[in-house]
Design a protein that fits this description.
By secondary structure, the chain is an alpha/beta fold. The protein is built from twelve helices and 13 strands. α1 crosses α6. It binds threonylcarbamoyladenylate (TXA) and magnesium ion.
Length: 331
């Protein structure tokens, strides 16, 4: 599971690309990011163009360590410092009031900026060597599945001359596998904008205060649009006890199923395609996007996912599956 050793020659190459305003796919512990120099407006615009993402959506600024908070944010609350001390480097994004350094193109014109210090050795090495901050959304076309391997990025966005990216760094499969937890600390109360592997409970334990679910006036976050993170194949999530009957009802379709091996073993008829789902939340999250990519490419007419268990460690997984289902209308 360890990432391949950081290749300093590749990192140096990536730094050169970034310094001249180019685009680099970089592995992080969550998903692969599509990185550009956060201080270079044209480079950040090129990120939006490569993804096909609307220009008013903000991107996360990736920083090398917590000392960058004061350069990028203003009126920083103690809660931000406490969360950074507890979870950085790691899969947590803090939304704070922006400093003048944060360009409109990065913040989507909002008065806040999202900051994250990634833990992945390749992302960390790149940030150290680059010396600046990197604006990086997930390295996939807007609305599609997030990439957790360099191969996913290559297949979706590609490298120049035929693709959109100047360089793809291959740091192996992402160990967390789903996007960072996003918490908004710019308002009166900490608010969870996107669940992730760092749970709301874990945030509340550090803060000693409740963390709210987003209300209607929460800042824009495309990760919160329903139609997002979606495969091309229509996808449905079915409770374990109804899986057999649902598959029977879909007998006329070629179906690809994601379910635990023990559940698959109970089915009377084997689905056309079946993938084993892990029983633990950590492993399930790590494998989720790779499984969905694989099921999406299996030539099936329907993807059926056996609903994972309930419980706080599964919240982010249910969130991603719900979005995958909502967005998975045939295109
Ligand atoms: O794990 C991750 O967060 C990955 C890796 C590459 O770091 N990045 C990622 O980026 O998922 P992206 O752009 O696919 O999703 C970032 C989310 C979006 O929903 C965006 O709207 C939200 O973060 N966001 C960024 N800045 C924000 C801000 N100032 N206020 C509210 N939401 C913000
Ligand atoms: Mg994304």
């Amino acid at each position: 599971m360890d990432a391949p050793a950081v290749d300093s020659a590749r990192i140096a190459q990536a730094v050169e690309v970034l310094k001249r305003g180019g685009l680099v796919a970089v592995p992080t512990e969550t998903v692969y990011g599509l990185a550009a120099d956060a201080a270079n407006e044209a480079a950040v615009r090129a990120v939006f163009a490569a993804k096909g993402r609307p220009a008013d959506h903000p991107v996360i600024v990736h920083v090398a360590d917590a000392s960058a908070i004061d350069a990028w944010a203003r009126e920083v609350p103690d809660s931000a410092r406490a969360l950074a001390a507890a979870f950085w480097p790691g899969p947590l994004t803090l939304v704070l009031k922006r400093s003048p350094r944060a360009l409109d193109v990065v913040t989507g014109g909002q008065d806040t900026v999202g900051l994250r210090c990634p833990a992945h050795p390749w992302a960390h090495a790149l940030l150290q060597a680059f010396g600046g901050a990197l604006a990086a959304p997930s390295a996939n076309r807007f609305g599609g599945l997030s990439p957790t391997t360099a191969e996913h990025v290559r297949a979706d966005l590609g490298e120049k001359p035929t693709g959109a990216l100047d360089l793809i760094l291959d740091g192996g499969a992402c160990p967390v596998g789903i996007e960072s937890t996003i918490v908004d600390l710019s308002g009166a109360q900490p608010t969870l904008l996107r669940p992730g592997s760092i749970t709301r409970l874990a945030l509340e334990q550090v803060l000693g205060t409740p963390v709210a679910e987003p209300g209607g006036d929460a800042p824009r976050a495309p990760g919160r649009l329903e139609r997002h993170y979606a495969p091309r194949t229509p996808l449905e999530v079915v409770p374990v006890d109804r899986l057999g009957s649902r598959l029977a009802a879909l007998f006329h379709l070629r179906v690809a199923v994601l379910a635990p091996a023990a559940v698959l073993a109970t089915l009377r008829a084997a689905p056309a395609v079946q993938l084993h789902a892990s029983e633990g939340a950590e492993a399930y999250a790590r494998e989720l996007y790779a499984s969905l990519h694989e099921l999406d490419q299996a030539g099936a007419e329907r993807i059926v996912v056996s609903a994972p268990p309930a419980g706080p460690e599964w919240t982010a997984i249910h969130d991603r599956l719900r979005r995958a289902r909502a967005g998975s209308h045939p295109r």
